[in-house]
């Protein structure tokens, strides 16, 4: 495709003139997925999905394969960058009422679930201590399902414990799911362009639109450059920022780490899981912590779309953001007071945000009807 054809295509995508930087995270996520797929492909060439060789193959990639350490670090740190961008992208959608583009929001939430599954399978692959034990804890949750639980767990493991067949399955799934992500991302983007982007004011932007290029494409390039610079800065100077020290030891089924915890981007869901003493209740709360996002387009009752003009909901949004951080922090701590109580209180606050949204909307509508 020539440069002129590209410019024509960009000009066919008019966007609202008041779109802010928060709208750049969609294109950054697309770039993140490309980085992950490219680095993942090169890692897969050298990786060995065998419990005796997996850990050694990661060391081999880092030490012996030319530029392998760059591929391995970019892939590992890139996953964290991916989740930072996706959480900001979701937060922007909640704040500015972007979820009212129902098809776009529902396809995006489905993408989040598939992405989390892919990341979980990927975290098991290095076969370090934390990889093994995090996989043991999470897959064991299936046993909480009445009647079918044990059968499902045995089927997923490919045996009666996490072993060679489990690692092979997780590697296959980690390799295949990104193709589903590419397909769903394409649908997500197509739906977005058929619906049109929202904007910070939540108003109809049809009356004031500008060409995507150069007005928005340059902002995309700037944000993308910033993200890649940050990624390489972390990779070069702080490569172990997101790593757990336990994962530098090979998986040993006979030695349980003192504090089992997943990667930081799963900690909010893990914190909600462990704040409920009942196993089935915890598993359901874990699923609901993500699935509740599907409800937001249907529970919005306010006449006003964006929180820009909703001060009470702004307060609730920032309380929710703080709650998310508190759950993440509490989940890194031992299961003992006061962290258990903090986690439980924060979990209640987390779900309260989604329940209070329709009530606040109706209250605001009543106030606006009086004035």
TrEMBL record:
<dbReference type="GO" id="GO:0046872">
    <property type="term" value="F:metal ion binding"/>
</dbReference>
<feature type="binding site">
    <location>
        <position position="193"/>
    </location>
    <ligand>
        <name>a ubiquinone</name>
    </ligand>
</feature>
<keyword id="KW-0999">Mitochondrion inner membrane</keyword>
<keyword id="KW-0349">Heme</keyword>
<keyword id="KW-0813">Transport</keyword>
<comment type="subunit">
    <text>The cytochrome bc1 complex contains 3 respiratory subunits (MT-CYB, CYC1 and UQCRFS1), 2 core proteins (UQCRC1 and UQCRC2) and probably 6 low-molecular weight proteins.</text>
</comment>
<dbReference type="GO" id="GO:0005743">
    <property type="term" value="C:mitochondrial inner membrane"/>
</dbReference>
<keyword id="KW-0408">Iron</keyword>
<dbReference type="InterPro" id="IPR005798">
    <property type="entry name" value="Cyt_b/b6_C"/>
</dbReference>
<dbReference type="GO" id="GO:0006122">
    <property type="term" value="P:mitochondrial electron transport, ubiquinol to cytochrome c"/>
</dbReference>
<comment type="function">
    <text>Component of the ubiquinol-cytochrome c reductase complex (complex III or cytochrome b-c1 complex) that is part of the mitochondrial respiratory chain. The b-c1 complex mediates electron transfer from ubiquinol to cytochrome c. Contributes to the generation of a proton gradient across the mitochondrial membrane that is then used for ATP synthesis.</text>
</comment>
<feature type="binding site" description="axial binding residue">
    <location>
        <position position="89"/>
    </location>
    <ligand>
        <name>heme b b566</name>
    </ligand>
</feature>
<dbReference type="InterPro" id="IPR048260">
    <property type="entry name" value="Cytochrome_b_C_euk/bac"/>
</dbReference>
<dbReference type="GO" id="GO:0016491">
    <property type="term" value="F:oxidoreductase activity"/>
</dbReference>
<feature type="transmembrane region" description="Helical">
    <location>
        <begin position="76"/>
        <end position="98"/>
    </location>
</feature>
<keyword id="KW-0812">Transmembrane</keyword>
<feature type="transmembrane region" description="Helical">
    <location>
        <begin position="221"/>
        <end position="238"/>
    </location>
</feature>
<dbReference type="InterPro" id="IPR016174">
    <property type="entry name" value="Di-haem_cyt_TM"/>
</dbReference>
<keyword id="KW-0496">Mitochondrion</keyword>
<feature type="transmembrane region" description="Helical">
    <location>
        <begin position="170"/>
        <end position="192"/>
    </location>
</feature>
<keyword id="KW-0830">Ubiquinone</keyword>
<dbReference type="InterPro" id="IPR027387">
    <property type="entry name" value="Cytb/b6-like_sf"/>
</dbReference>
<dbReference type="Pfam" id="PF00032">
    <property type="entry name" value="Cytochrom_B_C"/>
</dbReference>
<keyword id="KW-0679">Respiratory chain</keyword>
<dbReference type="Pfam" id="PF00033">
    <property type="entry name" value="Cytochrome_B"/>
</dbReference>
<feature type="transmembrane region" description="Helical">
    <location>
        <begin position="132"/>
        <end position="158"/>
    </location>
</feature>
<keyword id="KW-0479">Metal-binding</keyword>
<feature type="transmembrane region" description="Helical">
    <location>
        <begin position="342"/>
        <end position="360"/>
    </location>
</feature>
<feature type="domain" description="Cytochrome b/b6 N-terminal region profile">
    <location>
        <begin position="1"/>
        <end position="201"/>
    </location>
</feature>
<keyword id="KW-1133">Transmembrane helix</keyword>
<feature type="domain" description="Cytochrome b/b6 C-terminal region profile">
    <location>
        <begin position="202"/>
        <end position="371"/>
    </location>
</feature>
<dbReference type="GO" id="GO:0008121">
    <property type="term" value="F:quinol-cytochrome-c reductase activity"/>
</dbReference>
<dbReference type="InterPro" id="IPR005797">
    <property type="entry name" value="Cyt_b/b6_N"/>
</dbReference>
<feature type="binding site" description="axial binding residue">
    <location>
        <position position="174"/>
    </location>
    <ligand>
        <name>heme b b562</name>
    </ligand>
</feature>
<feature type="transmembrane region" description="Helical">
    <location>
        <begin position="104"/>
        <end position="125"/>
    </location>
</feature>
<comment type="similarity">
    <text>Belongs to the cytochrome b family.</text>
</comment>
<dbReference type="InterPro" id="IPR030689">
    <property type="entry name" value="Cytochrome_b"/>
</dbReference>
<dbReference type="InterPro" id="IPR036150">
    <property type="entry name" value="Cyt_b/b6_C_sf"/>
</dbReference>
<dbReference type="GO" id="GO:0045275">
    <property type="term" value="C:respiratory chain complex III"/>
</dbReference>
<feature type="transmembrane region" description="Helical">
    <location>
        <begin position="37"/>
        <end position="55"/>
    </location>
</feature>
<feature type="binding site" description="axial binding residue">
    <location>
        <position position="188"/>
    </location>
    <ligand>
        <name>heme b b566</name>
    </ligand>
</feature>
<protein>
    <recommendedName>
        <fullName>Cytochrome b</fullName>
    </recommendedName>
</protein>
């Amino acid at each position: 495709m020539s440069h002129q054809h590209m410019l024509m295509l960009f000009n066919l995508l008019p966007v609202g003139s008041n779109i802010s930087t928060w709208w750049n995270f969609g294109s950054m996520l697309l770039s993140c997925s490309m980085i992950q797929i490219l680095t993942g492909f090169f890692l897969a060439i050298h990786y060995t999905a065998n419990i005796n060789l997996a850990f050694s193959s990661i060391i081999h990639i880092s030490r012996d394969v030319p530029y392998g350490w760059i591929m391995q670090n970019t892939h590992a740190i890139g996953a964290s960058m991916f989740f930072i961008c996706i959480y900001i992208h979701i937060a922007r959608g909640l704040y500015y009422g972007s979820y009212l583009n129902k098809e776009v929001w529902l396809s995006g939430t489905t993408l989040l679930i598939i992405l989390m599954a892919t990341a979980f399978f990927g975290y098991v692959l290095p076969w370090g201590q934390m990889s093994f034990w995090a996989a043991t804890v999470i897959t064991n949750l299936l046993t909480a399902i009445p009647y079918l639980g044990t059968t499902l767990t045995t089927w997923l493991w490919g045996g009666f414990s996490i072993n060679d067949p489990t690692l092979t399955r997780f590697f296959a799934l980690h390799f295949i799911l990104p193709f589903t992500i590419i397909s769903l991302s394409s649908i997500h983007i197509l739906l977005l362009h058929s619906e049109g982007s929202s904007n910070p004011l939540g108003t109809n932007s049809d009356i004031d639109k500008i060409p995507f290029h150069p007005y928005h494409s340059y902002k995309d390039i700037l944000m993308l450059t910033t993200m890649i610079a940050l990624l390489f800065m972390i990779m070069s100077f702080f490569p172990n920022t997101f790593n757990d020290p336990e994962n530098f030891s090979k998986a040993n089924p006979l030695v349980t780490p003192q504090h089992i915890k997943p990667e930081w981007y799963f900690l909010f869901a893990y914190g909600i899981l462990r704040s409920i003493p009942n196993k089935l209740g915890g598993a359901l709360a874990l699923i609901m912590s993500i699935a509740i996002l599907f409800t937001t387009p249907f529970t919005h009752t306010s006449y006003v779309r964006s929180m820009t003009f909703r001060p009470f909901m702004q307060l609730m949004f920032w309380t929710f953001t703080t709650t998310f951080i508190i759950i993440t922090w509490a989940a890194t701590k031992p299961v003992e007071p006061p962290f258990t109580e903090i986690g439980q209180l924060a979990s209640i606050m987390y779900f309260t945000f989604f329940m209070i949204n329709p009530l606040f909307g109706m209250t605001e509508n009543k106030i606006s009807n009086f004035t």
